[in-house]
Amino acid sequence: MLNHRKLAARALLAVVFWPSLFFFWFLGPFVFFLLSTTSSEVCTRLETRAEFLAAANGTIPMLAVQNLIYAVPIVCLVLWDRLLPEPARARHIVTCIKLFAASMVVGALWEYGSSLVCDGYGQPFFSPFWQMTSYLPIVSVVLNIPLYILAFSLGRAFSTREDVAGDEASPPA
């Protein structure tokens, strides 16, 4: 009976993991990018440094929510590992968590920095460091490609039913 409960829990995690991986990690960045960028109409209204900084700081709650939503596949991997512990997979999950944390920081810096760079008047309100954040999407891609591949392979390994073949299946006659 316990084996069926673990199998059901693994199946439930698979039902959460795969859609969240697809919608949040593959389609989500495009949606959040469109929602978090400042339109040209708003940029022209920002005349003082305080207004500019307030607009950029307004993106922080969205960045926090975005990162919480993006963590759903990582949480599924951790829960899968708790149900079916295996040292090799646990090391890969730790690698996923590290890559995710680095990607989260780079993404937040990029989105916050792009909010500060947007200036309708060309006024240098902030240091050139924030203009350098325009290169962070390249770093993000370098981090996210191995993260996506590793998370996909771990999800595939966890959601397969290799335990049923050894426990319940009868040998072929």
UniProtKB/TrEMBL annotation:
Residues that span the membrane, as ranges: 12-35, 55-80, 92-112, 132-151
Top-level taxonomic group: Bacteria
Keywords: Membrane, Transmembrane, Transmembrane helix
Keyword Membrane included in the entry's annotation: yes
Protein name: Transmembrane protein
Phylogenetic placement of the source organism: Bacteria, Pseudomonadati, Pseudomonadota, Alphaproteobacteria, Hyphomicrobiales
